[in-house]
Give the backbone structure.
Amino acid sequence: MTDLSHTLSRMSRPGVLVNAARAVSYAISASNDDPDHLMTVEAILERGRTDRAESYSPQRHIEVLGRLIALARRKPAMAA
């Protein structure tokens, strides 16, 4: 995986989603999270959001993005 911070900065997501995820990221412990798994889950959630899937969960999307942001903040070298 490329640098997680760089990957996250290149993602195009609605501002309200990103702002909520940033706020959540300060309260989440992301130390045991697998960045590859989280990126996969986020891609699935993003597809659900853009397709307006009935099963889409904004709360789950915010949580996953928050975990990715927290992981990038706490372990910048882990993304290599």
